[in-house]
């Protein structure tokens, strides 16, 4: 289990990195916590590896009223410590183990687009986006890809060859909103091998549910977002018809059998977790910390 | 193509010529002869290869040596002080927190950083803190015990030298 | 410091080096050695049409590529079948490199040697093997139908079939007893595949200097690897040394020998005249070492109104994987140890050991016992449920009573000897367990259950182990034994035994294990046998040395040996401390050739009387030096026992199972070091919890192992293991001088049975297949809800 040979590049700035990515068929190395296992198992054999760890200006974690922009080199542990977004914090606690989070990046996890990973679901439920940069004639081309377009399939993001994901934007929760992340992993810190659900609930001035969205993990090729605002109805969380809500979520997902669980169990579980996450999010919306 | 790199390992600058694909774990073990860092899975799950990179625990099997050129690395060989075993090492010995010893270097590095950041962790914080390290021998019970014990030893060590009041209450 | 260390929680002497990164595991050796890697079969069953290595030859740093055809006749022979048995009518072993066919994913086909492992893997990737894939045989029951064959010459895929019958006291057979019993039950049980999975994989390093071969292997038996290597390479035994250095866990898998790599790496080293090393990676360990567990059991039981078993009839399908290098030890142990602490009226057990196109099955900690205990304990629970009785009451009704030892179960055990239990006190043990877990006060409610499991474990099987003890003229004591260590703390425990026997401070004692340069005859570390076998052998060797020391000291002190004792390394006359002589001096006196190399030798001259001119300097029957060697070879095994209980909570919605409490009462006879025994139990229970709730090897219909990584083979972390509460009962074994029984495997044995019992209690329906995942518990709930 050793990586296959590749040509290693360590560009010193973004221009150099984009030039390289335009020239060679290269794989981007940031935290490496997803890429290097694939290399060690020789499931990936890129001819070139472009190590972006030395690029300046990509480690930022910038919180503004609209939301948080996380740079490509911001480590998961740093983002969690920054405490800039409640749902990111809730999700990051579930991402692998502390040691992995010291190296792994938030943006890298998004680009890896594992359907059982937590962070893509967070971006999806918030309606966030990823900024992709590339070498364009006469300069740098940048495009902003919304979450629903970014996750294209299992382990497949919208980032194209030659593109570098430079940051991700996680919109702030609206006022009177709460969020929660519930999952059942087999072991603490594992991927959501069974299922996971994150939820955002916004209440109106009467503390009735104004909007409720979930994103489900591990039950489809990409994070499955379900807007259940209508099913919840404009009513206090306590009187939400939870059975109908969980049914609506279950209708949205397409779980499959695998070695860890049956599709039927996952379908059941995703409803259970959705209700837990939504109730918790609603409670947090009603009583902000 | 090979790359000339310098790693500051356990306080000493060490140079090596490595290909781009050389894993940090292999560089430490085979290029620098520091075989105390062990390799148990090479896909980042077992934690045996955990070392401190600028003080933060990371998987050396999921890190290319070239990526960390110029940075500081602490391995198990560098944990003991001039006066002998570190408090974490002593606690592992006292509490019988190792059997075959293969996972131990990874635990020691992880716990050293854990207790630096959180000198008096609660039980669930200890469990979370070591939850990325597999041990097949001990059943973890004595490792958990050793983490608490190490916290006590560190508190004892800090108390007189820093001239602060004892922090037993926090450490227990 | 006291020299009475037997029974004390002495801190481990191994720890210092292991805590500072100075342990020496195989991959830490031979920094300049060439690296070996293997092309392994991607198919579960295929014919090899052609192997094209040409593309690999361009890899820079490549040194050699070997296929089966390149091996000399002796090296290329099928690997030995270690433990033949008359019932194993169709034993089959692999070639070191596949010859024409492959029978499981992971079977080695081509060996590559290169400057380093990266380059060796590059070369492997460029070697093209042309396979003709065949539909594989996967799944026990499918294999047992025998429609397709793993080995063309093994009809029905049956490697072995063994029937053992123990009639009741009234002479009735088990089947007759069941027919006539007031109550009968019939059911089927399943246990999935798991594996030892030590964190250090296997590894071999070999160095040949033109005359002598030195091999380091991460093995549980260096002496046997040595003999196997010498035989395969045609070398005289004295020219081969095998050393097990620090070994990063074994748990059974490393008792298999010789592995193909243990033959091929030394052969390559000799052929190339270079040091060669192979370090198994995790993927290789999953697909090319060995697995265990994997049985289907069909059970019929007849019992009376008190729950006493009148007849038990068990038919076992045992999945042997593709080969049988370790014989049929595992199913033999299952079928004999199944009886546990119970008196069963009449017993019939028949197993079929079945070939499948999967990784071979050899012992993993517990070695067939967890399956047997699962069967018997599920049976006890079902009887209790049927009769509406407390589960512990039914067990109590079937126990062997303390005054019935030695108790003959009427069967033949794994060592080929009668299954006769030596000692124990099962009723007392159960009472202790019930108190520890609070059995009688337990408040049952839906989603919360309590479970229990009992076992008896034959430990310390023969045929022998030896110990050598030498006192040198500096007063140090050098102990060696041939069996190996994989983390059990043998250096500490054996030093404790030697310190207690010899009266020497433990600091002056050093212990070497698993090094054939120091001790050539040994069996190995498995079957919870180290403390019993080598412990007693070392004690016996120490007693020889002690007797000799007292004899020499008595001469020097002009005293009667019977009046002498040794404390703190000094021989002295009881009651007259001034009349004494250091053991170091005795060691000098023990050698008639007494050059004054060191101070001790110079000082010893004061004691040296003139030798009698009419007698040889070394008397007949005597030897120079203060050393002794002895062997311990028991008539039969000792029988340790244990009982575990657990409280679990099951989530009503997610079907997750949480172990809230876990209690163990354990009897391994006299404890040499309670701290180490406790550690062994903790580790065993943790592996048991893994096997009950998390770990399994999942093969698909094509014979592909779907979870061959730590991401998907779910070994528990600290967050998954409950706190383990332990209590000890000590019923010393009458069979050996130290009164010890083994402890190594104990913790793991009943855990699946205990957790199944507790989950069943929480859920109210039978749990007959382990491990159990949340998804499976959910499916069971659905099935039982819809009736």
From TrEMBL, chain A:
Q: Which of UniProt's keywords are assigned here?
A: FAD, Flavoprotein, Oxidoreductase
| Gene Ontology molecular function | anaerobic carbon-monoxide dehydrogenase activity
Indicate yes or no for the key word Cytoplasm.
Answer: no
Q: Which Gene3D superfamilies match?
A: 3.30.465.10, CO dehydrogenase flavoprotein, C-terminal domain (3.30.390.50), Uridine Diphospho-n-acetylenolpyruvylglucosamine Reductase, domain 2 (3.30.43.10)
Domain of life, per lineage = Bacteria
Q: What class of enzyme is it?
A: oxidoreductase
* Protein EC: 1.2.7.4
The FAD-binding PCMH-type domain extends over 1-175
What is the annotated signal peptide range for this record?
Answer: none
PROSITE patterns referenced in this protein's UniProt entry, alphabetically: FAD_PCMH (PS51387)
For this protein, the record's Pfam families field holds: CO_deh_flav_C (PF03450), FAD_binding_5 (PF00941)
* PANTHER family according to UniProt: XANTHINE DEHYDROGENASE SUBUNIT C-RELATED (PTHR42659:SF2)
- The name of this protein is Carbon-monoxide dehydrogenase medium subunit
Its source organism is Nonomuraea roseoviolacea subsp. carminata
TrEMBL record, chain B:
Q: Which UniProt keywords apply?
A: 2Fe-2S, Iron, Iron-sulfur, Metal-binding, Oxidoreductase
Q: Which residues form the 2Fe-2S ferredoxin-type domain?
A: 3-79
Q: Which superkingdom does the taxonomy of this entry point to?
A: Bacteria
Enzyme class per UniProt: oxidoreductase
State the EC number(s): 1.2.7.4
MF-aspect GO terms = anaerobic carbon-monoxide dehydrogenase activity
Record's keyword annotation contains Zinc-finger: no
Q: Name one Pfam family in it.
A: Fer2_2
Question: Which PANTHER family does the record associate with it?
Answer: OXIDOREDUCTASE WITH IRON-SULFUR SUBUNIT
What is the designated name of this protein? Answer: Carbon-monoxide dehydrogenase small subunit
TrEMBL record, chain C:
Q: Where is this region: Disordered?
A: 607-627
Residue span(s) of domain Aldehyde oxidase/xanthine dehydrogenase a/b hammerhead: 20-135
- Pfam families noted in UniProt: Ald_Xan_dh_C, MoCoBD_1, MoCoBD_2
- Do the record's keywords include Membrane? no
- Coiled-coil-forming residues are none
Protein's name according to its UniProt entry: CO/xanthine dehydrogenase Mo-binding subunit
What InterPro entries does the record point to?
A: Ald_Oxase/Xan_DH_a/b (IPR000674), Ald_Oxase/Xan_DH_a/b_sf (IPR036856), Ald_Oxase/xanthine_DH-like (IPR016208), AldOxase/xan_DH_MoCoBD1 (IPR008274), AldOxase/xan_DH_MoCoBD2 (IPR046867), AldOxase/xan_DH_Mopterin-bd_sf (IPR037165)
Q: What species is this protein from?
A: Nonomuraea roseoviolacea subsp. carminata
Q: Which superkingdom, per the lineage?
A: Bacteria
């Amino acid at each position: 289990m050793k990586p296959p040979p590749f040509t290693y590049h360590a560009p010193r700035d973004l221009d150099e990195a984009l030039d390289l990515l335009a020239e060679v068929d290269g794989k981007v190395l940031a935290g490496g916590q997803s890429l290097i296992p694939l290399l060690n198992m020789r499931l990936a054999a890129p001819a070139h590896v472009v190590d972006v760890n030395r690029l300046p200006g990509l480690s930022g974690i910038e919180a503004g009223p609209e939301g948080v922009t996380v740079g490509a080199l911001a480590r998961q542990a740093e983002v969690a410590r920054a405490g800039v977004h409640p749902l990111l914090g809730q999700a990051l606690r579930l991402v692998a183990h502390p040691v992995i989070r010291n190296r792994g990046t938030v943006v890298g996890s998004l680009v890896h687009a594992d359907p059982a990973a937590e962070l893509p679901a967070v971006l999806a439920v918030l309606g966030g986006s990823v900024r992709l940069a590339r070498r364009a004639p006469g300069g740098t081309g940048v495009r902003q890809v919304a979450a629903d377009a970014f996750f294209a399939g299992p382990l497949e993001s919208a980032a194209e060859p030659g593109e570098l994901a430079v940051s991700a934007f996680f919109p702030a929760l609206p006022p009177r909103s709460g969020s929660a992340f519930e999952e059942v992993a087999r072991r603490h810190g594992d991927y959501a091998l069974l299922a996971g659900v994150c939820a955002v609930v916004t209440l109106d001035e009467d503390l009735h549910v104004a909007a409720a969205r979930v994103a489900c993990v591990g039950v489809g090729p990409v994070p499955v977002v379900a807007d259940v605002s209508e099913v919840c109805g404009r009513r206090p969380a306590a009187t939400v018809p939870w059975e109908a809500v969980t049914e609506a979520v279950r209708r949205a997902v397409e779980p499959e059998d695998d070695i860890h669980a049956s599709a039927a169990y996952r379908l059941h579980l995703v409803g259970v977790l959705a209700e837990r996450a939504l109730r918790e999010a609603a409670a947090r919306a009603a009583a902000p910390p | 193509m090979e790359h000339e790199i310098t790693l500051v390992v356990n306080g000493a600058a060490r140079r090596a010529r490595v290909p781009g694909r050389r894993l940090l774990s292999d560089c430490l073990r085979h290029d620098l002869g520091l075989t105390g860092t062990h390799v148990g899975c090479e896909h980042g799950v077992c934690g045996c290869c955990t070392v401190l990179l600028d003080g933060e625990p990371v998987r050396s099997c999921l890190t290319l040596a070239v990526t960390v050129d110029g940075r500081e690395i602490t391995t198990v060989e560098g944990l003991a002080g001039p006066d002998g075993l570190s408090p974490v090492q002593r606690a592992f010995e006292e509490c019988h927190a190792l059997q075959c010893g293969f996972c131990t270097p990874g635990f020691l590095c992880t716990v050293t950083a854990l207790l630096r950041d959180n000198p008096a962790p609660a039980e669930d914080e200890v469990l979370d803190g070591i939850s990325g390290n597999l041990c097949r021998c001990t059943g973890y019970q004595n490792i958990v015990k050793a983490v608490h014990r190490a916290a006590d030893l560190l508190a004892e060590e800090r108390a007189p030298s820093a001239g602060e009041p004892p922090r037993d209450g926090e450490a227990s | 410091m006291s020299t009475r260390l037997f029974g004390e929680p002495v801190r481990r002497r191994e720890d210092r080096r292991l805590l500072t990164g100075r342990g020496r595991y195989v991959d830490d050796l031979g920094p300049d050695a060439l690296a070996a890697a293997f092309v392994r079969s991607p198919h579960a069953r295929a014919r090899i049409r052609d192997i094209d290595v040409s593309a690999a030859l361009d890899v820079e740093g490549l040194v050699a590529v070997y296929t089966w055809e390149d091996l000399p006749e002796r090296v290329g022979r099928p690997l030995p079948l270690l433990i033949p048995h008359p019932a194993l009518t169709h034993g089959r072993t692999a070639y070191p490199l596949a010859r024409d066919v492959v029978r499981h994913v992971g079977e080695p086909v081509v060996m590559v040697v290169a400057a380093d492992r990266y380059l060796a893997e590059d070369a492997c990737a460029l070697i093209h093997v042309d396979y003709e894939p065949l539909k594989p045989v996967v799944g026990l029951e499918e294999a047992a139908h025998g429609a397709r064959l793993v080995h063309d010459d093994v009809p029905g895929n049956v490697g072995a079939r063994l029937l053992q019958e123990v009639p009741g006291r009234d002479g009735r057979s088990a089947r007759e007893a069941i027919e006539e019993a007031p109550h009968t039950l019939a059911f089927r049980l399943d246990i999935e595949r798991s594996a030892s999975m030590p964190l250090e994989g296997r590894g071999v390093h070999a160095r040949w200097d033109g005359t002598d071969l030195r091999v380091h292997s991460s093995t549980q038996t260096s002496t046997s690897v040595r003999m196997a290597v010498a035989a395969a390479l045609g070398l005289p035994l004295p020219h081969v040394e095998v050393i097990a250095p620090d070994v990063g866990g074994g748990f059974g898998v490393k008792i298999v020998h010789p592995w193909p790599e243990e033959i091929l790496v030394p052969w390559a080293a000799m052929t190339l005249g270079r040091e060669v090393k192979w370090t198994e990676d995790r993927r290789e360990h999953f697909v090319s070492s060995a697995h265990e567990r994997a049985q289907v059991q069909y059970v019929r039981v007849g019992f009376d109104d008190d729950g006493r078993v009148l007849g038990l009839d068990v038919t076992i399908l045992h999945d042997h994987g593709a080969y049988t290098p370790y014989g049929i030890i595992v199913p033999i142990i299952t079928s004999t140890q199944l009886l546990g602490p119970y008196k069963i009226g009449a017993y019939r057990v028949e197993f079929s050991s079945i070939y499948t196109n999967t990784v071979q099955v050899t012992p993993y900690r517990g070695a067939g016992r967890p399956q047997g205990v699962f069967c018997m304990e599920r049976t006890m629970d079902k009887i209790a449920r049927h009769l509406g009785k407390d589960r512990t009451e039914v067990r109590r009704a079937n126990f062997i009573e303390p005054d019935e030892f030695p108790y003959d179960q009427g069967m033949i055990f794994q060592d080929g000897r009668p299954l006769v239990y030596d000692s124990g006190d099962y009723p007392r043990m159960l009472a202790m367990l019930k108190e520890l877990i609070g059995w009688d006060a337990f408040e049952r409610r839906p989603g919360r259950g309590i479970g229990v499991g009992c076992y008896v474990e034959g430990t310390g099987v023969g045929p022998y182990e030896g110990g050598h003890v030498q006192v040198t003229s500096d007063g140090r004591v050098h102990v060696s034994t041939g069996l190996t260590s994989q983390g059990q703390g043998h250096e500490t425990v054996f030093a404790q035994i030697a310190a207690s026997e010899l009266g020497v401070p433990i600091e002056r004692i050093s212990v070497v294990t698993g090094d054939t340069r120091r001790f050539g005859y040994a069996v190995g570390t498995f079957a919870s046998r180290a403390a019993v076998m080598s412990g007693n052998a070392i004690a016996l060797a120490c007693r020889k040395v002690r007797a000799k020391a007292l004899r020499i000291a008595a001469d020097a002190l002009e005293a009667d040996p019977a009046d002498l004792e040794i404390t703190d390394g000094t021989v002295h006359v009881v009651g007259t401390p001034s009349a004494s002589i250091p053991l170091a001096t005795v060691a000098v006196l023990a050698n008639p050739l007494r050059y004054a190399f060191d101070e001790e030798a110079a000082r010893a001259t004061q004691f040296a009387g003139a030798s009698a001119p009419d007698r040889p300097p070394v008397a007949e029957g005597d030897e120079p030096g203060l050393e002794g060697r002895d062997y311990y070879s028991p008539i039969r095994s000792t029988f340790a026992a244990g009982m575990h209980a657990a409280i679990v909570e099951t989530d009503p919605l997610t079907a997750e199972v949480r172990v809230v409490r876990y209690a163990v009462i354990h009897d391994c006879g006299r404890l040499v070091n309670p701290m180490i025994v406790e550690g062994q139990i903790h580790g065993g229970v943790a592996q048991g919890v893994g096997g009950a709730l998390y770990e399994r090897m999942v093969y698909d219909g094509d014979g592909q192992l779907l979870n061959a990584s730590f991401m998907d083979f779910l070994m528990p972390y600290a967050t998954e293991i409950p706190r383990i509460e332990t209590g000890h009962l000590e019923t010393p074994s009458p069979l050996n001088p130290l009164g010890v029984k083994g402890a190594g495997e104990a913790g793991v044995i009943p855990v699946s049975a205990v957790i199944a019992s507790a989950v069943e209690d929480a859920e109210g329906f039978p749990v007959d297949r382990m491990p159990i995942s949340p998804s499976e518990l959910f499916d069971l709930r659905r099935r039982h809800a819809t009736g």
